Amino acid sequence: MVSPLVALTPEIQSAIATALGDDFRDVDPVLRPSQFADVQANAALALARRVGAPPRDVAAMIVDALDLDGIAETVAVSGPGFINVTYSDSWLESLLSEVEADERIGVPVEERQNIPIDYSSPNVAKEMHVGHLRTTIVGDSLARILEHLGHHVIRQNHIGDWGTPFGMLIEHLLEVGENAAEVNVLVTDPNAFYQAARAKFDAAEQAEPAGSAGDFDARSRARVVKLQAGDKETLEHWDRLVGMSKAYFNRVYTTLGVTLTDGDLAGESMYNDELAAICDELERKGIATMSEGALCVFLDGYTGREDQPVPLIIRKSDGGYGYATTDLATIKYRVARLGAHRALYVIGAPQALHLNMVWDTARKAGWLPNDVTPVHVQIGNVLDKDRKILKTRSGSSLRLMALLEEAVDKARALIDETRPDLSEGTRATIAHQVGIGAVKYADLSVAHGSEYVFDLDRMVALTGNTGPYLQYVGARVRSIFRQAGRDPLAQHAPILIGERHERELVKALLGFGEVVTAVGSEYEPHRLCGYLFDLAQTFSAFYENCPVIKAELDEVKESRLTLCALVLRTMTTGLDLLGIESPAQM
After folding, report:
1. What are phi and psi of 27, to 5 degrees?
2. Of 42-46, 169-173, 328-332, 402-406, which has the strongest mean pLDDT?
3. Contact 567, 477 (CB under 8 A)
């Protein structure tokens, strides 16, 4: 289906050419929708100077030549020369009938692209904290939306599963024993294991005399060398740590309802064998040079204090590799092996400089061609009510699972209060759907680069711009159909506009495809959240002012049931694209 906003442009262009001559046909009218399907065009203002006539006169000439029979109810000149177009009810009815008959409810299928999306990216043997919440939720929503638009999305969970910390983790594993309870807790509380290993390492570093072969820190460093060299026994221990962390990650992802699986893991370790070659090629091409014992890339335009060049260190002075080397190998792999047309990195905003330097280096090396677009989907912080980074009272990062469990508990208290008539199992299911949906919506409804305050009481509220409010719309529509003894999926009566609130609802429903397309191109899930909230409010006004089951005429009743069914399809599809479930009842 073509958006009427887009469809209007050729009609105005044709009218311009008819009224003013073909020389003016190339003018692209600027359309300003006051509401969807009612537009204001300022073509006359743009043309007045070229034509040498007052804007209102030019607008009148265009209107006289404009042929919108069967489309517009009124066309009029207003203000200094605006052309106001109000579409007819019958045309809106026909447009929405097309949407209603479309299984994709107006969402187009785009030309297929390969799009790797890098998101979530927790560390092995560490607890996922609230800082991982936004990248996981935003990344998963973008993956769902781009897939729905017809693209081949390749989820890339770039976990931290390699490097120096694994020396101390493996040594700690060997000291406590692989079957110790402390090891098994990795599945539920990874931080305890990591912190115990770190405490040993730090204590050994500070001990006198330092550096003897038997010290924990020395053994840890030696273990890193064995790991990087591919020592079989060390790799087996490493694999055990990774395996237990996978179980923990999957527990979080299942609770959160995201689509990441073990098959999407693409950690730092998978690039280990490529890092030396990355450095050699950059040095051979003259892109990387030695500086103070380290191999660095210096790029034009990247300067720090006193205009000193900022280095991208790709091999440290001790011979080790860092994030820059791994990220260069990553973008090279995603272009050469995954055939990326676009590559999305859903990563914290402070990483912008690092990513840009990596991408510019990859372009110089010929690994990132100009027709491949890397995109940093910048993620802002989650704040507490005092607008500080959300942490525990002790100052440590807030555990993600603890936060999710608290959200479900809050929702459960609300459901127990409002629906005591439901069974225990049903209330538990709804509480999970509402609690997790509330957290996701609160996050996604804010521009991903912005900060937001985490307030569970507000998030789980059934009123206001919240996830539960949107979920309730779907539950309300299902309740209407239960009362009517109908199946919403089988409701396909002709759509009729007779009341103002019906027209507003029709116009709101027509906007879904356009919004989903915009989110897929701009990577802004909050636009879809805003659309769904507006749709929910428009439906509520319709429901309050337009009786459905008790409508006086059968054809009006059937039309309104069809509108309700389409609201349900749109709302559930939209929420699903955000990764939010739609409870059958609330």
Report:
1. -70, 130
2. 328-332
3. yes
Task: Give the β-pairing of 152-156 and 373-379.
Answer: unpaired
The one-character DSSP state at 494 is P
| 3-state SS, residue 420 | coil
> What average pLDDT is seen over the chain?
91
pLDDT at 213 over 50: no
Burial label, 95 (beta-carbon count in 10 A; 0-12, 13-18, 19+): buried
Alpha-carbon span 497 to 562, nearest angstrom: 12
Dig out the tokens for 344 from the structure. 């999305």
Provide the sign of the torsion angle of the four alpha carbons 557, 558, 563, 568, taken in this order.
positive
CA atoms within 13 A on the CB side of 409: 6
Q: Count of residues for the chain?
A: 586
Say if residue 209 is preceded by a cis peptide, omega within 30 of 0. Answer: yes
CA distances from 481 to 341, 485, 564, 569, 578 (A): 44, 6, 9, 13, 25
> Do 449 and 351 touch, CB atoms closer than 8 A?
no
CATH of domain 4-87: 3.30.1360.70
* Rounded CA separation 527/101 (Å): 25
- For the chain, the domains span 4-87, 165-257
- pLDDT value at residue 312: 96
Cβ–Cβ contacts within 10 Å for residue 61, how many? Answer: 20
Start-to-end CA distance of the chain, whole Å, equals 34
In this predicted model, what pLDDT tens digit does every residue of 378-416 receive, in sequence order?
Answer: 999 888 887 887 765 545 567 888 889 999 999 999 999
